[in-house]
User: Which sequence fits this backbone?
């Protein structure tokens, strides 16, 4: 098809050039020129008809007008979604200051770890008084310990926590207080024919002595006298010397067996003196005893 069109166009151009090259001013050839021009017009008309027949109207692609209005792009306005603060489930404790976490409730139990100020820990149980919480140890993947809630801010519903029975407080072995004293002989004293023995007591233990008993046995006459008192008192003859309500650790005092005196002279007699001190009045409580033999 393209070759046919090209041929027709070439033919038209050749005929046009031929007509244009005819010599001007030759009258004999004017008629021939007119006829040639007429033939050329007929040929052009046929070419136009042929071109019209060769190009189907249906195959023509319409060209959109150049002044068509531009396509508008809609502006999209984004609406921000409201932000939500997640709510922690369970019961949480935020530390207001450093707090120790222990095996049990109280300082008597071994220390597990120390929770730092500002840390948040999860509670999984509580004690009946709601002042100690059994928490997940943040410094151990699977450990737990008891923490006092005094220095923490609580978040969550505490009633959802189970109540754990407190562990028994461990029994810490306390050193047994020493019940010791030193005993020494001072002498005998006489008041109106009555004779008494005076001894010195030094508290060398850790218990305070509050009462005393002195038993004096005269092995020469097989006679025994007993002195009991809730204080430590000394006599000089018939005069009361010094009285002490108790003997604290490291303190010393003297005791004269009044009452508990003998009605005869003890000089030259074989005496056995046994002294017992007590931690409470009325000869009760922890006690310790010492004995000695003397001959005034």
Assistant:
């Amino acid at each position: 098809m393209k070759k046919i069109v090209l041929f027709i166009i070439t033919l038209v151009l050749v005929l046009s050039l031929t007509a244009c090259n005819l010599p001007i001013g030759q009258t004999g050839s004017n008629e021939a020129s007119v006829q040639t021009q007429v033939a050329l017009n007929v040929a052009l008309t046929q070419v136009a008809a042929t071109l019209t027949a060769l190009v189907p109207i249906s195959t023509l692609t319409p060209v959109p007008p150049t002044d068509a209005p531009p396509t508008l792009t809609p502006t999209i306005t984004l609406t921000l979604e409201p932000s939500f603060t997640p709510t922690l489930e369970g019961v949480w404790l935020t530390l207001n200051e450093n707090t120790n976490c222990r095996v049990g409730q109280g300082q008597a139990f071994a220390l597990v770890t120390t929770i730092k100020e500002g840390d948040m820990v999860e509670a999984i149980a509580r004690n009946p008084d709601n002042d100690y919480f059994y928490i997940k140890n943040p410094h151990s993947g699977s450990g737990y310990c008891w923490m006092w809630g005094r220095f923490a801010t609580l978040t969550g519903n505490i009633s959802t926590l189970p109540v754990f029975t407190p562990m028994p407080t461990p029994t810490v072995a306390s050193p047994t207080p020493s019940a010791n004293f030193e005993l020494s002989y001072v002498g005998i004293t006489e008041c109106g024919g009555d004779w008494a023995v005076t001894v010195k007591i030094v508290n060398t233990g850790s218990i305070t002595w509050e009462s005393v008993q002195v038993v004096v046995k005269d092995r020469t006459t097989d006679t025994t006298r007993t002195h009991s008192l809730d204080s430590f008192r000394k006599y000089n003859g018939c005069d009361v010397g010094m009285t002490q309500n108790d003997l604290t650790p490291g303190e010393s005092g003297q005791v004269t067996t009044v009452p508990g005196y003998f009605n005869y002279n003890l000089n030259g007699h074989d005496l056995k003196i046994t002294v017992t001190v007590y931690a409470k009045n009325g000869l009760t409580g922890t006690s310790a005893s010492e004995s000695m033999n003397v001959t005034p």
About this structure: The CA atoms of residues 195 and 265 lie 6 Å apart. The longest helix spans residues 30-54.
